Each structure stands twice: as structure tokens, then as C-alpha cells.
Amino acid sequence: MDEYERATNQLKNVVKAITQDDFINIVDRDTKDPDCRSIQTIMNQCSQIGIRILKLY
Q1: In this structure, is the dihedral angle defined by the CA atoms of residues 13, 14, 18 and 23, taken in order, positive or negative?
Q2: What pTM did the predictor assign?
Q3: How distant, in Å, are the alpha carbons of 15, 49, 50, 51 from that of 55?
Q4: What is the DSSP string of the chain?
Q5: Which of 8, 45, 50, 51 could form a disulfide with 35 if both were Cys (CB 3.0 to 4.6 A apart)?
Q6: Which own/partner contact pairs does 36-43 have at CB distance under 8 Å and 24+ positions apart?
């Protein structure tokens, strides 16, 4: 569990440095995948995957 805690803390530090406007700003208008348009949608997708993995255990 230490590795997950370390990775989570690193991710929190990165996200803290991002403004709310940058977080929700669409940066890839050309992608066909709606989960890859902004930092917000990427983070949401990562969270959903993490929840699904935890449900396996």
C-alpha cells in the first residue's frame, strides 16, 4: 500500500499546482475520446478506473 500512497501524494501535489481554469479547460479539441479532452476528464477517468479496480478486491 505504500506505493499507492506515494503515487497519490505525488498526484495531489501536481493537481494542487493547477488552476481551476486550467483543470477544466479543454486542451485537446481533436480527440475522439471525450475522456481525454481536459485534465478534469482525464482525472475523472482515472478515478473511475481506480474504483473499478478496488471493487475487484
Answers
A1: negative
A2: 0.76
A3: 25, 10, 9, 6
A4: -HHHHHHHHHHHHHHHTS-HHHHHS---TT-S-GGGSSHHHHHHHHHHHHHHHHHH-
A5: 45
A6: 39/15, 43/15
